[in-house]
């Protein structure tokens, strides 16, 4: 038994984590929608196993490094996996698996967009995994672009004028963001002659050049993460896409650019960032929380409520930066921000899938057409409510742990005003979620007909909602993984 | 001012010009062209800044080649989306932005 375990630990999981989704992509593209659908679950399960294998190895042996094809930097590509990367990989694989399960049944009933959903999803997951494992700023640029192109393709799947316009707006915003990032890469290479994250961090000196780089890269990545007031492209793209696509985009894709920003701020920019710059990101985050929640409250279409809720929840991620600017709060701010990214991913994917089932059953997207849902789709509504607990930050959920860590950081650093923002945000979140619940609990109007749904559509959303709850009940596991190779070694949350 | 620095400054100007065009123009083809100008500006900075030492550095050349491949694919994708949008509703602008 122990020999099997040690043999498994010795497998080079890094290559598998990237190679499996890409192999699946090629197979699904070449053999068509039917085969893509058949192969999806095995491929997604294998990807999850590879991510688990890599995480086990990182937990046992510390951060892992891999040179692709045996070529090291500067000409070859080096991959690097620490606890943060592993947690992101696990999140991506788990949400990919449940969303894939949902999509198998969702696209069985819809003829539009099914053909390219499977290869594009494989491509999206592969690009994301490669991004989490990249250790140099240029390879990160390439993976960012691959991810952006796959995501835009998924938005355009349904092919209507609204979907095409949303996709094009998203594409132009994403491309502008990546070019700002690339200009930052050009300046960094011109000044320091290296692309590796670790070396750049050691060579960066405060000064006008460093500040220009920080401004360019942060602006570009904030645009790609849809930080307020750069969120204009997100609601039509996320709210208008096919349901499984909405879940993948809202739960995962925006986290990739946030992850990159986090790595850059803590591992490269750290010597040069100033407190006002961090405070500015926090102010934008606070704006996102309040304005996004308010707009969510004003929406008439259910999927748009959930999309604006993403704009608001992104705000919490950016509170990490000002909270980490003062030494006493830095660790809990970092852990809290990352935990918010992961728990939001589970809750938001669950919420989009549950809402998608309700819309599919009722046949309409408007909130006042949800009457009778509580009797017809109780499990979907329950999943929606469970995910809502995490978004509001109530115990026992992942969102509670995240917001509690952020609150702890705010109090430790004496920055009470962020506490006010978080509490107001929680109240607004409760308001827009209860609005949906209220309509869903109304008795069905006379003569109202529902489409029958396969149970898998409800069960997959429920699985994700349970995941968002489990993140609150068993937080010590993910936090222990996160500690491996964290920017402050030996720290505890 | 060395040649490399002239390239870099020109690149930065082109980048700003492209970004300005991407924001102010409503017509989709103009937006896509503006994105390409931004890209070319970035590539000039990448090659220009790295040549300051006098000798040729192969790494930025390789990066720019990769960057060009990415930019060409992104442009092709944007163009096909714009054509599909035009076929669907007869407009060359995004909704909410004025007819150009």
Following the backbone from N to C, one meets helices and strands of chain B in this order, namely HHH
Query: How many DSSP-defined strands of chain A?
Result: 2
Major β-sheet annotation of chain B: none
Strand order of the largest sheet of chain A: 1-2
Uncertain spans of chain A, ≥5 residues at pLDDT below 50? 489-493
- Regarding quaternary structure, what we see is heterodimer
Biggest interface, chains and residue tallies: A-B, 33 and 39 residues
Strand content of chain A: under 5%
Whole-Å distance between the termini of chain A? Answer: 34 Å
Number of strands of chain B: 0
Largest sheet of chain A: 2 strands, antiparallel
Helix content of chain A: over 70%
CA-atom Rg of chain A in angstroms = 21 Å
Your description of this structure?
The complex is a heterodimer of chains A (493) and B (100). Chain A has 493 residues and is mainly α. Chain A has a domain at 276-493. Chain A has helices at 2-10, 13-61, 83-109, 114-133, 137-155, 161-192, 197-203, 208-225, 234-240, 243-268, 275-298, 302-323, 330-362, 373-376, 378-392, 398-412, 416-441, 455-473, 476-483, and strands spanning 64-67, 78-81. Chain A is globular and about 70 Å long. The two termini of chain A are 34 Å apart. In chain A, 61% of the residues are buried. Mean pLDDT of chain A is 90; it is low at 489-493. Chain B has 100 residues and is mostly helical. Chain B has a single domain (3-89), classed as Helix Hairpins. Chain B is built from three helices and no strands. Chain B is elongated, with a radius of gyration of 17 Å. Chain B starts with a helix and ends in an 11-residue tail after the last helix. The A-B interface holds A 74-75, 138, 141-142, 145, 149, 152-153, 156, 159-161, 164-165, 167-169, 171-172, 175-176, 179, 182-183, 185-187, 189-191, 193, 195 and B 8, 11-12, 15, 19, 22, 28, 31, 35, 38-39, 41-42, 45-46, 48-50, 52, 57, 59-60, 62-63, 66-67, 70, 73-74, 77-78, 81-82, 84-85, 88-89, 94-95.
